[in-house]
Design brief:
Belongs to the ABC-2 integral membrane protein family. The chain is mainly α. It is built from eleven helices and no strands. The two termini are 26 Å apart.
Length: 245
């Protein structure tokens, strides 16, 4: 791995995003609008917003980053850009880490925007420290990016990449504990939810809404999310293809 090549890849991706206002709007504006909509849906039930607002603070950016990262990476392959890049002295790890770094910076800005909006203007009440909530939200965005980079290797078209969203993320959304406590699920579903990364993202957010201080359980959940990010990036580098079949 060459840091200079990785940074060059990240700069190229960021330059492309800067000239794509629609994608930037999807990344930065849409999660904020969804949280505003959620606030007014539960305008008469502030306790409900406090209960589900924090988990969705992480889930919305995760879904958006997954979609954009998977489609952007696949577009590089279908247009032949990826094949040309890999003929140069550029390793797969350099390329994927460059993408991860670029989208990670976007995820940082995204997390700051949704965090400031939700805690500030929308008045979300949490018991835990705000900085830890922001850290978990950022980790969730990075998780969406890493999963998108990994799964893009298994799609042949952008339409197929989009199909991974309902196929891969929606089951996690149903089993993560947002709609029903995971402890109340039957044994099979509970076991499945235990291996899904979104479950730990939601568990961390739920704990931060009810528990003060920096608990070991929250840090454990955060460690699992970060571990899943690193695993997805490693698998993405191993499965990265130059072009579609």
């Amino acid at each position: 791995m060459n840091p200079r090549r990785t940074l060059a890849t990240a700069r190229r991706v960021l330059a492309q995003l800067r000239h794509d206002p629609r994608t930037l709007a999807l990344l930065l504006v849409v999660p904020c609008l969804l949280l505003v909509l959620l606030k007014y849906v539960f305008d008469g039930e502030p306790q409900t917003f406090d209960r589900i607002g924090a988990p969705l603070l992480g889930i919305f950016p995760m879904i958006v980053m997954f979609l954009v990262a998977s489609v952007a990476t696949l577009r590089e392959r279908t247009t032949g850009t990826l094949e040309r890049l890999l003929t140069m002295p550029l390793g797969r790890a350099d390329l994927l880490l460059g993408y991860a770094l670029a989208f990670g910076l976007v995820a940082l800005v995204q997390a700051a925007a949704v965090f400031g909006l939700t805690i500030g203007l929308l008045g979300l009440h949490i018991a835990g420290p705000s900085w830890l909530l922001f850290t978990v939200a950022l980790a969730d965005g990075l998780l969406g990016t890493a999963m998108g980079l990994f799964l893009s290797a298994f799609a042949a078209t952008e339409f197929q990449a989009v199909q991974f969203l309902p196929a891969f993320l929606l089951p996690q959304l149903l089993l993560c504990g947002l709609f029903a406590p995971r402890d109340s699920m039957n044994a099979v579903l509970h076991a499945v939810s235990d291996v899904l990364p979104m479950s730990y993202a939601v568990d961390a957010m739920n704990r931060l809404t009810t528990e003060s201080g920096v608990g070991g359980a929250v840090l454990g959940d955060l460690a699992v999310v970060v571990g899943c990010v690193l695993l997805a990036l490693a698998l993405g580098a191993a499965t990265l293809r130059r072009r579609t079949a």
